[in-house]
Amino acid sequence: MGHQEPARSSVRRTTAHIPRLPRSISAAMRGARRAGSVLEPLLVSSSELIGYLPYRAYGRTLHYRVDNAHYLEAAQTEPPGILFFFDGDYLLRSNSRLLSRTSSLRRDLADIAREHRMLCVPVLAPGTLEAPVFNDPTTTWWVRARRNGRVFRALAADLAERYGYDRTRIWLAGYSGGAEFITYELLSHSNDWLLGGGASMIGGGGSDGIPQRFRGPSRSLNGMLLSWHVGDRDGKAPASAGQIWSAQRAAHEGEEFYRGRQARTMLHILPKQGHRGYPLTSLIRDDLRAATRLGYL
What we know:
Blueprint: H1 10-15, H2 23-43, H3 46-51, E1 53-57, E2 60-64, H4 69-74, E3 81-86, H5 105-115, E4 118-124, H6 145-163, E5 170-175, H7 177-186, E6 197-202, E7 224-231, H8 247-259, E8 264-270, H9 280-294
Parallel strand pairs: 3-4, 3-5, 5-6, 6-7, 7-8
Antiparallel strand pairs: 1-2, 2-4
Helix pairs in contact: 5-9, 6-7
């Protein structure tokens, strides 16, 4: 991953407040954007950009792909399941492994989904493809999570009508900011569309960004298998104090919160693993195989 999480307090994460940058930093970023516009074609595959489709709802536009539908249609006898993937947060758009010219992530995810008779749908955070090379602070999943959640749920409903996927076989997978979006928003409320399946949270997936109004009684998630993967070098230890965001703390807090909602949860600590370089595809593959073996898919 070409990515580092910025320091974030729980207040900022809950309210999604973005402070105004000093003028000198703003000017430097404008210059960097102009320089980046020259270099980006060398880093981002134009075919990747063209392949994403826009979906607009509630005043926001996100981009997505359905990567393996043609494989499933040929031999489909039952409705397919669906795998959604949400990437992390990046300052430079080309750092995203969903867009990088040299990344095999999208192809690997499609192969994993095909193995489990699922559609594969990578989704970019709203604004990613409209941003001028460098993303602004709101081009993330967890900032403005409520609105982003409404847009994504509308997309999920639209895809259900078009592809008729099985809502008892839905898998959500996210890295870093994408994992936070899953636990902050998609699982915490308005989750009646999730009738079975589960989720993989990698390098994140906390509960401190869930507003208080969504912490009360909610639909039980006892038909879901939720799996967290976090490195033992990814942020401070769970018991440590301080406001700097820690993937370790997030994973432990998220697992505890959703265990209390009757989901079946798993927490995996990866030795010598920092925030970059998670083996995303192998972790998601292992989770889907475990979910199949345990009867969640």
